[in-house]
Design a protein that fits this description.
Layout (H helix, E strand, L loop, with lengths): L1 H19 L5 H35 L3 H9 L5 H64 L2 H8 L4 H77 L4 H32 L22 E3 L2 E4 L6 E4 L2 E4 L5 E3 L4 E9 L3 E9 L2 E8 L1 E2 L6 E2 L4 E4 L10 E8 L2 E3 L8
Antiparallel strand pairs: 1-4, 2-3, 4-12, 5-11, 6-7, 6-10, 7-8, 8-12, 9-11, 12-13
Length: about 400
């Protein structure tokens, strides 16, 4: 009897140690198999979702031809045309930002899936190696192993116990085979998911390129239209009058904002009073120092006559950062037909800075900002014929040269 027990233990140890060295016991294997099957279902659902998202992405891209056709109907009124076109620019900018966020998220998902795939492949290789060992052991032991175990039984009850043990071993082998098949299926699904995710990533990147091309196309269209309207008027008197009315409207808007601020300060008296300490301003468009149009009298680019330019135009790519020139309080963050998306900051003691034609605004009225803080993105909204920042400085109700406060 002692000899039989030693033999049984030896068989059990060899079967389990050789076949499943370092692996989970039977109940945990059942759990692992269920977990793998759950992952398979999860991955199949994710692959289906990825395919659907790719279709949605393709269908959501801007139909630039349709947009231009719709804009044609508003060209009779340049003001209406600019407002509608700026609305389209804002929509496209939002799509580009959304696509870039999706690209970043998808790149993270792909990195995670690649890690999970590596783990699944390692698991599959370990399972395959264990199964080969098990098959080799069974081959070397031959068909006589189980027969010897049965016929060496001391009693009928002992024989039933051994038969049950043999059945358990067979069931265990079947579980391991099923788990291996499931793991292999999971590996295939990880690979398929990676393929779909990478295809989605490429579609998203192509979408960004397409939307940026649409954005630039609309800006070019806007430039041509504004220039065409100006050149179509022989004497240009109407265009000049319109330009002067536009400047008057800007000045009235700015003056009104200054008046509101002054009234608020009067009410607050000494509380929260902003003081300008005389420091130099930060360059509002970092890394871009080319001045496309300077402060002072200049020949207007579309009217062809000498006009006063109340700020400096900084040539910069669309979407690049606009920074607050100095500490202060945002008194306006709004849209106007001429200024486009603009921001006005109170720096105290009657000193203000104004930032025009932004593609996006990142601060709102009432926000306190610090020198060098990102407040907006360069664009071409309002009466603008290309991406740039129009930067103005006002002191005690009048425009002054920005060069008194900022240097390259």
């Amino acid at each position: 009897m002692g000899k039989w027990r030693k033999y049984t233990c030896a068989v059990l140890c060899v079967s389990l140690a050789v076949c499943f060295a370092g692996r989970m016991d039977a109940p945990e294997n059942v759990y692992a198999s269920e977990l793998t099957n759950d992952l398979i279902k999860e991955k199949e659902a994710e692959i289906s979702d990825a395919k659907e998202l790719k279709k949605q992405l393709q269908s959501s891209l801007t139909d630039i031809k349709k947009v231009k056709e719709e804009l044609e109907q508003s060209k009779e009124s340049l003001k209406l045309y600019v407002e509608q076109l700026d609305g389209q620019l804002a929509t496209i900018q939002e799509k580009i930002a959304d696509l870039k966020n999706k690209i970043a998220e998808k790149e993270e998902e792909i990195a995670q899936t690649e890690t999970e795939l590596e783990a699944a492949i390692a698991d599959q290789e370990n399972q395959y190696a264990a199964m080969k060992q098990r098959i080799r052991f069974m081959y070397e032991a031959g068909d006589t192993l189980y027969m010897e175990m049965i016929f060496s039984a001391d009693s009928f009850g002992d024989m039933l116990n051994k038969a049950e043990y043999i059945e358990m071993l067979s069931a265990y082998d079947r579980k391991m085979l099923d788990e291996y098949v499931a793991t292999r299926k999971l590996v295939e699904l990880y690979m398929e998911q990676l393929e779909e995710d990478r295809a989605y990533l490429e579609e998203a990147k192509a979408g960004v390129e397409s939307e940026e091309a649409s954005l630039n196309s609309l800006i070019d269209e806007k430039k041509k239209t504004i220039e065409q309207v100006s050149s179509d008027i022989d004497t240009k008197e109407a265009a000049i009058a319109e330009y002067e009315a536009e400047l008057k409207e800007q000045n009235e808007t700015i003056a009104m904002l200054e008046k509101i601020v002054a009234e608020e300060k009067a009410k607050l008296a000494k509380e929260n009073r902003i003081k300008y300490d005389g420091g130099m301003f930060a360059w509002p468009a970092p890394s871009y120092t080319r001045i496309s149009d300077d402060y002072g009298n200049r020949i207007h680019p579309t009217l062809g006559v000498e006009k006063f330019h109340n700020g400096i135009d900084l040539a910069a790519p669309g979407g690049s950062a606009i920074l607050a020139a100095y500490d202060g309080k945002v008194v306006a963050a709004d849209y106007s037909n001429s200024m486009g998306n603009y921001i006005m900051i109170d720096h105290g003691d009657g000193l203000y800075t104004i930032y025009m034609h932004a593609s996006a605004l990142y601060v709102s009225k009432g926000t306190w900002v610090s020198k060098g803080q990102k407040i907006a993105a360069v664009g071409s909204t309002g009466r603008s014929t290309g991406n740039h920042l129009h930067f103005s400085v006002r002191l005690n109700g009048s425009y002054v040269s920005p060069w008194n406060y900022v240097s390259k």
